[in-house]
């Protein structure tokens, strides 16, 4: 049995209570949600916070998926399993279901949360890549109120975010735009492992041309990175295998993988290309399929 | 015992039916599936303290000083012990199972990351662990030897300067076969193929880590040790020798064990620490290692760097196999193998083929890595041997452009050649290889698979079909040849039939999940006709069972299984005499039908074994010269090893874009002689095949250049899940062992031995369009991608 160092434990009863505790205890306190990153680190004594503030009771307050016409809002305590099982979310952003199918295993997914995943800021983490791909905004609350930051602002470095000591991430907001779809591709050594490389893609079409597209990668750099160069190359173009190939090449150029136990830097760069192509292809196929289904639906009506 | 309600349609309730061999649910499972197993960590004794071990953070360093004062001041700490303390007790070093010594706690230097440096005994597990942080050790870091290929460089740091006059990292050279004869065959052969083949370091990673509860009674000078041991009797004797405790005052209990795979054969420093902790404090002391400690410090497996060579005629007659091996044994030579076999049974690298010559030369060296060497269901290094020969035979098939199945069948030892003496001196007891291979081909639909492969290749898809055929040597072993630290490898067995015809059989071997409580009851039942449900199997307690060397190397059924059959026959012989008295006929006029004797020609006149048991213990007269009671004891010395064999076929698909390998199908046809409980055999095979997927595709204990272990958690050291394995397709043939009393051979490790080459052969076959002849394990996507680009890299 691996045992953590001594730690004080308190259960927060509301977001305000949690923030109050954070204000009082300062940097020696850590929030624990699903606990699937923090607790193993504590057991290995890689992390030894003095205080743990358990926010699992806030699931009622922060566990939700609200799909609105222009925006999807997801509470920070929404669990992986809820993201996986939400048909409403999959309808708008199928990338979530793609990713959740390959995140860890059911035991972890029953417990782990969206907010916990993002705040861990692990460069290999999948939901970070998903949120980056979708251009999500993060709502951070502190004693003096809320502020909203982009994903680019949210990540400051590996395992480092814009969330300050007395703040917590409470919500993710994702803009909804018409004629879009998305997809996620991951290569792992074994089911449940962290990604060797993952790629997310989101595409919006307008009259057969790409109105906008975004690609987000995981495990190929210090932070899960969006790739503006890829978006620039895709905008205004007609989807094609050749275009996906170009986008893949750009993705591979614009990432910075390192060699480790999961694979060589060269291989990861190759995957960045291959998976970007696959994710873009699948996104466009999904838009077209939905168009087709919508057409049938219209005719039936 | 169990109900049939929830079982699938067509399930035959056979739980009690076989009065002997046959498919039957495991007697031990009701307690396991209800969470009522009793493992070492379940042992709670009044006043029990907890031990935690401080381990070296570096691979190689001189210990300058250790300050334990702050730890000793911790309010819950009862003792802090260092190497210096143990030196005072004469316990700082202990013998390994292979004639070396290993530090219990480091005194002079640390020699691998994770090595034991000090231990704390405290009131609870948390306090013990907290106190480790309070021990201050100053290290003078030395250059480590990590690259095994450089271990013998004259400039390499000397790891074992504790050994008198040791000036290098050489452990032993070993050879087998005839070097000159082999060279002569190679010199004149049409075709010679050679390949560098690495079997990387892996770890058995059992679900239950190692640990013990030591309870030393100062009044009686008696030590009781609950321990995760595959060999309780051997351990007791070794504790007696190491610690100077009288053997009759030591009781070793191995309760339920959560997997061993060879990793629980050695005595680890932690066990000795807990014993010392109990002696020092006068209280029971529990030590359970955590997962990282298990992966980084207990017995690893493999780590052989092999050059394989094969000589053949142009038309595919294999003439000779030769190999040169560099073996990484880590910081202490902790190999668990019979004394005369420093490389285990690697000598069976000649495989299942009729050769003219064979030769192996091996060099073993020290490195700054954890010690061990034989673990993970390897049948004493047969895993490495079979992998070598089955890989090199495939390389030959590649060069000859021959079908690998055809090449194997052409070279099989023929049934009439058994018993067959190999060129390295092993006497294969029995075998009939071609029917086993044919059965596997039939189940797999081999010809159709090859057609499908051709079609897929034409479309640019990567599909591979891999074949492996193995012969194992299991059941160590004959006492004339084999011992471990002077202890013969025979096993005792005792059978006692109670007055009401129920029985207890006591074994010297120890189950770690193999189902001994069922299999051994069935062996006895088959011989004596008492239903298995009426036979209790007692094992894992040195006070309750006869002496024997324990369970590893697939030896339980070949050795102890034979003992169980023979002791039952001994009891039956006595029962026959008693029956003759009861039926008032001569012994020669009795006929045995399972469970009863009857008068020849008059089946109405009969007595059951239960009737006889009551008479044996009853008040009536017994035949002259016959004592009361119905029991016997024997010690079985095997005449030879048993040699199971099998044919395995694997089908893989590789994603050409990502290089991910998917094992689509796996066919395993095993021949382990007489099959006692087919369900248990299938379970063992399923487990071993899963091991094979792990080793072939993902498992490896790797180190960085500083000697830091990179596999210290199950997030880093990957083991396969249900998602990585296909539905196993198993089959069997039966070639009984001629010398085993019931014709059974060992099977526990067959699948672990046979599956890695089948999977690797399949992956390499899939990569044939890239001109690839060999790629080393583990075949992770990144490493397969390297191979696809023509640059397969060795893992070390």
From TrEMBL, chain A:
SUPFAM superfamilies: CO dehydrogenase flavoprotein C-terminal domain-like (SSF55447), FAD-binding/transporter-associated domain-like (SSF56176). One of its GO terms (molecular function) is oxidoreductase activity. This is Carbon monoxide dehydrogenase medium subunit. Pfam families: CO_deh_flav_C, FAD_binding_5. Gene3D superfamilies: 3.30.465.10, CO dehydrogenase flavoprotein, C-terminal domain, Uridine Diphospho-n-acetylenolpyruvylglucosamine Reductase, domain 2. The keyword Mitochondrion does not apply. It comes from the Bacteria. PROSITE patterns: FAD_PCMH (PS51387). Residues 2-179 form the FAD-binding PCMH-type domain. It comes from Planotetraspora silvatica. Keywords: FAD, Flavoprotein, Oxidoreductase. InterPro entries: CO_DH_flav_C (IPR005107), CO_DH_flav_C_dom_sf (IPR036683), Diverse_Substr_Oxidored (IPR051312), FAD-bd_PCMH (IPR016166), FAD-bd_PCMH-like_sf (IPR036318), FAD-bd_PCMH_sub1 (IPR016167), FAD-bd_PCMH_sub2 (IPR016169), Mopterin_DH_FAD-bd (IPR002346). SMART domains: CO_deh_flav_C (SM01092).
Automatic annotation (TrEMBL), chain B:
Its cofactor is Mo-molybdopterin cytosine dinucleotide. InterPro entries: Ald_Oxase/Xan_DH_a/b, Ald_Oxase/Xan_DH_a/b_sf, Ald_Oxase/xanthine_DH-like, AldOxase/xan_DH_MoCoBD1, AldOxase/xan_DH_MoCoBD2, AldOxase/xan_DH_Mopterin-bd_sf, CO_Mo_DH_lsu. SMART domains: Ald_Xan_dh_C. It comes from Planotetraspora silvatica. Residues 34-143 form the Aldehyde oxidase/xanthine dehydrogenase a/b hammerhead domain. Residues 1-23 are annotated as: Disordered. Residues 1-18 have a biased composition (Basic and acidic residues). The keyword Iron-sulfur does not apply. It holds the Pfam family MoCoBD_2. It comes from the Bacteria. NCBIfam families: CO_dehy_Mo_lg (TIGR02416). Keywords: Molybdenum, Oxidoreductase. GO terms for molecular function: anaerobic carbon-monoxide dehydrogenase activity; copper ion binding; iron ion binding; molybdenum ion binding. This is Carbon-monoxide dehydrogenase large subunit.
